[in-house]
């Protein structure tokens, strides 16, 4: 696995840093390798080290985007219906107040 190679490289860099007094190039390489090993460990802890991980993440992003779109649409529909109900009640109140209901019965 790539993680074994990175861990071995990290061990070599640590030994080199100890032997040479740790110059800047060695330290940068050490940091880069350590970050790679850390990233691999983090991905492994999340179960994202297999070949399907990229597709899984894309699917999760698409699902989350669809959920957000559906949630926004539901709120818009609810507000739209609330406005329609308020307007219908307002019109009904005006009809009763103006006595137009009596004209419609005739």
Question: What does this molecule look like?
Answer:
By secondary structure, the chain is mostly helical. The protein is rod-shaped, with a radius of gyration of 33 Å. It is built from four helices and no strands. α1 runs antiparallel to α2. Helix content is about 90%, strand content about 0%. It has a domain of about 70 residues.
Major beta-sheet overview: none
How much helix, percentage-wise, in residues?
over 70%
- Based on CA atoms alone, the radius of gyration comes out at 33 Å
Pairing-aware structural class of the strands and helices? mainly alpha
Count of DSSP H/I helices? 4
Low-confidence stretches: none
Percent of residues in β-strands: under 5%
Tally of extended strands?
0
Arithmetic mean of pLDDT: 86
* Overall morphology: rod-shaped
- Return the string of H and E elements: HHHH
Please report the distance between the alpha carbons of the first and last residues. Answer: 89 Å
List keywords for this structure.
106 residues, mainly alpha, 4 helices, rod-shaped
Any chance you could write out the topology, listing elements then pairs?
Layout: H1 2-20, H2 24-45, H3 53-98, H4 100-105
Task: Give a brief outline of the structure.
With 106 residues, the chain is an all-alpha fold. It has a domain at 2-75.
